[in-house]
Amino acid sequence: MLGQVRDCAEALGVAEDSFASVGPQDPASVLYCPSHHARLAGSCWLSLNSCWLSLNRSADAITALEKAHQLVAARRKSTAVVLGNLTLANIRHRDLDTATSYLHQAISVIERTRAGGGLNLAFAAARELRPWSDRPAVQDVNERLLTLMTP
To answer: What does the alpha-carbon distance between residue 112 and residue 34 come to, in Å, rounded to a whole number?
Structure first.
């Protein structure tokens, strides 16, 4: 969050080691999910990409978040967050086709789970897609987002 790439990478390494040491004897092991580290890394790299230093870490975010997407269950609320972050990372990487594809997937999960965090990210992505609002793919996701707001 502070734009310190080396410190971020070191902290992610420590977190990865901590996650690797989780075992059945750990009282919090029931809270552990194999996607935790990849989700954390993706969020960190995405945050570094949007920090005031304008570091281009969207490719790192995409790699980590795609790994998280493979590890997380398809119908969980956290899936919507991963997909929302993948959308943002791909927008910042200027891959609009992939971004809108992930946003459609996120909206589908949000429709099933009513995931609040995913909903916030979906609308954040829609705001970042405004410069391309004349494109049919962007118009399609905006229409789907509007339908989420109806009972």
So the answer is: 23
If you ran DSSP here, which 8-state letter would residue 112 be given?
Answer: H
Q: What is the pLDDT of residues 20-34, one digit of tens each?
A: 777 778 777 766 676
For tokens 């989420």, name the residue.
148
The pTM of the full predicted model, rounded to 2 decimals, is 0.67
State the DSSP H helix or E strand holding residue 143, giving kind and residue range, or none if neither.
helix 136-148
Q: Where are the domains of the chain?
A: 5-148
Token pair recorded at residue 33? 């999910």
Q: Architecture of 5-148 per CATH?
A: Alpha Horseshoe (1.25)
DSSP conformation letters of 13-64 = HHHHHHHHT--TTSTTGGG--TTHHHHHHHHHHHHHHHSTT----HHHHHHH
